[in-house]
């Protein structure tokens, strides 16, 4: 083309380029504004389009020093011309940095400041209106020492109230002790009436007997009352020792109860009961009383042993035996014999009674004799020798057996360690295969080196081998059936002569 | 010649009364995307919107698609038959030229946008 280049529609060098990008939603986003804003992407700032950008787009296109990209590497050096001299930050920024106490070294620390809002990442601060920080238990623990009783050494006087701490302490001030107890627990402990745990129908108080008996004041009941009083006291003490915040109302539980007609009736019955107390007998019939007692006492009289338990002197059971008993007679006889014996031995010579014992020299036990005491069914005793060379038995094979050469078909040759018939019984697989091979007439292929034969030849070889084996198995089975009786006879012979590990069938 | 005429001229027939008071700019909208369907849709919408407002528009010019090829071995190791993956990345680009005031263009472009379509606007004074 010889002509000038056509004037393009837009001259890039004199235009402003904007790109539509997604809005950064961290800053103020109202639903009316769109998701995308136009951001200027070129650097020709002398050309500006006034009407194109909205107000919020303007903020994206502001190139403040305080924006977070302010210190990014610039692609063109045009912006450096606009900076002020000195530390490089505008004056307001510097002032604010100095106000916050940050060093004035030209770095804009304000960009690291962040507004606390409820948005943001994990480091945002959330104001918890229900957080109570004063519930953290104090380092100092305060104990209630008002009930501490001092040692008698420290107490000088005999005054009643002097053994408390208050008298001894140089300075005491009322301190409100804040206990780190759950208010629920306090409420439970405070629950003096415990009306939640009792039934609503119940009319009686806890110590109703005490309360009932108190207005009467009878002497017979004093013991009971005292016991009950002490019980009540213990309870009261126990309660006192527990949490000191518990109300002292617990001690005043005993109150007067409204008397009912039933109470009067009960009192009368009780009086009657007590008045009829002189009898002191069981509730059932009075006539049998005396008989029963005597019977009980006399029942065990017959079986009464000597009360050897109660005596102070120690006695063996034999000593405490009475004369009219059998055991006493036996014991007496024994003592007589013993004394007789003792007296006799002093007088005459003692007869020496010899009991035959086996001495070590007379008897000689060895393994053979011991073993021979066992039955012959279980073992076949023989002298144990060291195992020799098994080959010594037969003469070397190089020397022909005199009878061997003349051996024909009718002669069964014996060979091997156990002197068994050779070439007489069904043989091993390989030999059978050899026979089969002869029968089939297949010539053995010269064995190739593995890796040199091709796949087909290998396959052929394997298949032939398989066939041979199959035939051999069949022939073996046939032969086995034929000569079964012979095998039985051979097995019998082997069973007697050789070890039982040989199985021929 | 024709170019010189077009450089500063406005077509009086197509201008409405409002437009004559406002500055007119040459605006080139470049749309690029990997997805042709979305891109064509956006283009069609833009053109339709501009035509409704009686703007002078030069219809979507299809820039030839740039295909970026990446050919890698399929295997993570070197073993096995050497199979290769052929990935490609197609970038389609359309250019629309308008002559109008900038706020009108703002309106048009803010209405529709498909995901994956990148919009670039170049403005020049006429």
From TrEMBL, chain A:
<dbReference type="GO" id="GO:0042274">
    <property type="term" value="P:ribosomal small subunit biogenesis"/>
</dbReference>
<protein>
    <submittedName>
        <fullName>Protein LTV1</fullName>
    </submittedName>
</protein>
<feature type="region of interest" description="Disordered">
    <location>
        <begin position="442"/>
        <end position="505"/>
    </location>
</feature>
<dbReference type="GO" id="GO:0005829">
    <property type="term" value="C:cytosol"/>
</dbReference>
<feature type="compositionally biased region" description="Basic and acidic residues">
    <location>
        <begin position="442"/>
        <end position="471"/>
    </location>
</feature>
<comment type="similarity">
    <text>Belongs to the LTV1 family.</text>
</comment>
<feature type="compositionally biased region" description="Basic and acidic residues">
    <location>
        <begin position="478"/>
        <end position="489"/>
    </location>
</feature>
<dbReference type="GO" id="GO:0030688">
    <property type="term" value="C:preribosome, small subunit precursor"/>
</dbReference>
<dbReference type="InterPro" id="IPR007307">
    <property type="entry name" value="Ltv1"/>
</dbReference>
<dbReference type="GO" id="GO:0000056">
    <property type="term" value="P:ribosomal small subunit export from nucleus"/>
</dbReference>
<dbReference type="GO" id="GO:0005634">
    <property type="term" value="C:nucleus"/>
</dbReference>
Automatic annotation (TrEMBL), chain B:
<protein>
    <recommendedName>
        <fullName>Small ribosomal subunit protein uS10 domain-containing protein</fullName>
    </recommendedName>
</protein>
<dbReference type="InterPro" id="IPR005729">
    <property type="entry name" value="Ribosomal_uS10_euk/arc"/>
</dbReference>
<dbReference type="InterPro" id="IPR036838">
    <property type="entry name" value="Ribosomal_uS10_dom_sf"/>
</dbReference>
<dbReference type="GO" id="GO:0006412">
    <property type="term" value="P:translation"/>
</dbReference>
<feature type="domain" description="Small ribosomal subunit protein uS10">
    <location>
        <begin position="28"/>
        <end position="122"/>
    </location>
</feature>
<keyword id="KW-0689">Ribosomal protein</keyword>
<dbReference type="GO" id="GO:0003735">
    <property type="term" value="F:structural constituent of ribosome"/>
</dbReference>
<dbReference type="InterPro" id="IPR001848">
    <property type="entry name" value="Ribosomal_uS10"/>
</dbReference>
<comment type="similarity">
    <text>Belongs to the universal ribosomal protein uS10 family.</text>
</comment>
<dbReference type="Pfam" id="PF00338">
    <property type="entry name" value="Ribosomal_S10"/>
</dbReference>
<keyword id="KW-0687">Ribonucleoprotein</keyword>
<dbReference type="InterPro" id="IPR027486">
    <property type="entry name" value="Ribosomal_uS10_dom"/>
</dbReference>
<dbReference type="GO" id="GO:0015935">
    <property type="term" value="C:small ribosomal subunit"/>
</dbReference>
């Amino acid at each position: 083309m010889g002509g000038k280049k056509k004037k393009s529609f837009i001259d890039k060098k004199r235009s402003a380029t904007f790109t539509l990008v997604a809005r950064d939603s961290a800053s103020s986003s109202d639903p009316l504004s769109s998701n995308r804003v136009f951001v200027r992407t070129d650097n020709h700032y002398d050309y500006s389009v006034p009407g194109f950008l909205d107000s919020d787009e303007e903020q994206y296109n502001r190139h403040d020093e305080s924006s977070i990209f302010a210190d990014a590497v610039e692609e063109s050096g045009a912006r450096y011309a606009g900076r002020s001299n000195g530390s490089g930050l505008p004056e307001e920024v510097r002032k604010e940095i100095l106000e916050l106490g940050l060093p004035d070294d030209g770095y804009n620390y304000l960009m690291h400041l962040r507004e606390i809002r409820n948005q943001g990442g994990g480091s945002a601060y959330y104001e918890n209106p229900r957080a109570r920080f004063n519930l953290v238990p104090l380092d100092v623990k305060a104990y209630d020492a008002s009930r501490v009783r001092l040692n008698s050494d420290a107490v000088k006087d005999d005054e009643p109230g002097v053994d408390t701490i208050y008298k001894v302490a140089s300075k005491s001030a009322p301190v409100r002790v804040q206990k780190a107890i759950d208010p629920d627990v306090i409420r439970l402990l405070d629950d003096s009436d415990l009306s939640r745990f009792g039934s609503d129908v119940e009319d009686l108080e806890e110590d109703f007997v005490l309360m009932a008996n108190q207005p009467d004041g009878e002497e017979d009941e004093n013991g009971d009352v005292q016991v009950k009083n002490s019980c009540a006291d213990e309870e009261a003490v126990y309660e006192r020792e527990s949490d000191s915040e518990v109300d002292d109302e617990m001690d005043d539980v005993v109150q007067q109860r409204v008397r009912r007609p039933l109470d009067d009736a009960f009192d009368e019955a009780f009086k009657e009961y007590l008045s009829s107390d002189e009898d002191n007998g069981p509730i059932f019939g009075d006539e049998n009383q005396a008989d029963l007692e005597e019977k009980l006492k006399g029942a065990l009289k017959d079986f009464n042993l000597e009360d050897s338990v109660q005596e102070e002197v120690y006695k063996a059971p034999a000593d405490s035996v009475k004369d009219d008993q059998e055991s006493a007679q036996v014991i007496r006889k024994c003592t007589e014999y013993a004394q007789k014996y003792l007296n006799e031995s002093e007088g005459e010579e003692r007869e020496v009674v010899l009991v035959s014992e086996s001495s070590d020299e007379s008897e000689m036990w060895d393994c053979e004799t011991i073993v021979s005491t066992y039955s012959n069914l279980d073992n076949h005793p023989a002298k144990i020798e060291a195992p020799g060379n098994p080959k010594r038995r037969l003469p070397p094979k190089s020397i022909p057996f005199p009878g061997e050469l003349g051996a024909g078909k009718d002669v069964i040759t014996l060979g091997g360690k156990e002197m068994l018939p050779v070439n007489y019984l069904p043989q091993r697989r390989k030999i059978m295969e050899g026979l089969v091979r002869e029968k089939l007439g297949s010539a053995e292929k010269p064995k190739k080196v593995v890796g040199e034969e091709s796949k087909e030849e290998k396959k052929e070889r394997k298949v032939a081998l398989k066939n041979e084996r199959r035939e051999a198995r069949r022939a073996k089975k046939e032969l086995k059936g034929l000569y079964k009786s012979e095998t039985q006879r051979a097995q019998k012979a082997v069973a007697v002569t050789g070890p039982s590990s040989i199985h021929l069938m | 010649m024709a170019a010189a005429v077009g450089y500063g001229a406005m077509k009086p027939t197509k201008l409405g009364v409002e437009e004559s008071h406002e500055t007119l700019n040459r605006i080139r909208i470049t749309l690029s995307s990997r997805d042709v369907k979305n891109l064509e849709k956006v283009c069609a919408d833009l053109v339709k919107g501009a035509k409704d407002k009686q703007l002078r528009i030069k219809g979507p010019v299809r820039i030839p698609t740039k295909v970026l090829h990446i050919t890698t071995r399929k295997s993570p190791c070197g073993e096995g038959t050497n199979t290769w993956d052929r990935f490609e990345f197609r970038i389609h680009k359309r250019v629309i030229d308008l002559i109008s005031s900038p706020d009108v263009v703002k309106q048009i472009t803010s209405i529709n946008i498909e995901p994956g379509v990148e919009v670039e606007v170049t403005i020049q004074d006429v």
